[in-house]
Each structure stands twice: as structure tokens, then as C-alpha cells.
Write a structure and sequence with these properties.
Layout (H helix, E strand, L loop, with lengths): L16 E2 L2 E2 H4 L5 H17 L15 H52 L42 E3 L9 E4 L15 E3 L3
Antiparallel strand pairs: 1-2, 3-4, 4-5
Length: 194
């Protein structure tokens, strides 16, 4: 007759082993947090070995159709918004010219208070920055804080004295086309001669 002998680790007061592990522990319910902790530990261990616990998603680029759709949308936006922005740039150049002409008019009026007359056409606007020889004793300039400005289209302002205008001088810009006359941004700006 064969006797049941307890195997190693079995016997009174000893837990039974299943596959080398404590069977009583395996029979206990496992909390969900403990399972997540084990997964996290397994994930960290796999990453230390240079492996990933999860299969990697396939890296995917943009298709040609997706790129073409984006380019078409950008082209439409440029076509709709671009002309409006450029129209505002032109309007701001006209406004800049008007503001600079008013600044130059103020400097010319201060020059006139000191000297008694406006600079002649020959002396030009440069008389605001350096004294003409004939009036050096009375000149208290420079009458501009910075350099003599160019108009927004990089052309010098036109100055004539004497001129048949309310101010007694003509001071103007020829506009974007740099020619007399014109409309919109090509129009002459300032105190024009008659």
C-alpha cells in the first residue's frame, strides 16, 4: 500500500505549492490596483531591456491628397486676404506722406519765425538741417530732429518757394508713380502749386 507522503513544502501548517508558487496565495482575490501595478512594473522592466511592452503603432505621414488639399486652402486664403492687405499698405503710405508733409510744414514755419522768410527753391529743404550762408547768423536749427525724410516711395519731397499757395510755398510728393497728376496712390500729396 502506498502512503501519501507530503511533498516538500507540504504538511500540516505548510501551504501547498502549485508550480512552485504558494497555492493559497494564488487563490486569494486580486485587487484591480494590484494588477495595474504589476503591469506597470512589467512595462518598466521591458523598457529597461530595450523592448516595448506594447506593440508600436505604425508611423504614418501625410498622403499626397492631404498635402494638396492644404495647399489649395492656403492658395485660396492668400488670394482672398492678400489684396486687402496690400491695399492697406498703399493707404498707409499715403497717410505717412501726409503726416511727413505736415511735419515739414511745421519745421518750415519755425524756420520762417527765426529767419523772416521761407528757404528759397535753391536752398530747398536742406536749409532746415544746415544753415544757408546768407542767414547763418539768424539760423537756430536744425529744425528737424532726424534726417530730412524721403517720401514713402523713396523719392525726395518737392519744394518750391515762392509759390501761389495759401502757405506761400509748395511742398508735395508725386505719389507712387513719381509723376505729376494721377489717382488714388498715384495722386500728388501735399501743398501743391497752382
Amino acid at each position: 500500500m502506498k502512503m501519501n507522503r507530503p511533498e516538500h513544502g507540504q504538511g500540516p501548517g505548510r501551504p501547498a505549492l502549485v508550480n512552485g508558487h504558494n497555492a493559497s496565495r494564488a487563490a486569494q482575490p486580486v485587487s484591480p490596483g494590484a494588477v495595474g501595478g504589476r503591469r506597470e512594473a512589467a512595462h518598466r522592466a521591458a523598457n529597461r531591456n530595450g523592448q516595448s511592452a506594447r506593440p508600436r503603432a505604425r508611423n504614418r505621414g501625410f498622403s499626397l491628397i492631404e498635402l494638396m488639399v492644404v495647399l489649395v486652402i492656403l492658395g485660396l486664403l492668400t488670394g482672398l486676404v492678400g489684396p486687402r492687405l496690400f491695399g492697406r499698405v498703399d493707404a498707409s503710405k499715403v497717410q505717412t506722406a501726409e503726416t511727413q508733409i505736415k511735419m515739414l510744414r511745421g519745421a518750415l514755419q519755425t524756420y520762417r519765425l527765426d529767419i523772416g522768410t521761407y528757404p528759397s527753391t535753391g536752398e530747398g529743404l536742406e536749409a532746415l538741417m544746415s544753415p544757408p550762408a546768407e542767414v547763418a547768423d539768424y539760423w537756430r536749427g536744425p529744425y528737424l530732429e532726424d534726417e530730412l525724410p524721403l517720401d514713402p516711395w523713396r523719392e525726395p519731397y518737392k519744394y518750391e518757394q515762392p509759390a501761389e499757395t495759401l502757405q506761400g510755398f509748395a511742398l508735395y510728393s508725386l505719389g507712387a508713380d513719381s509723376e505729376s497728376g494721377g489717382d488714388d496712390i498715384n495722386a500728388d500729396i501735399g501743398y501743391l502749386p497752382e
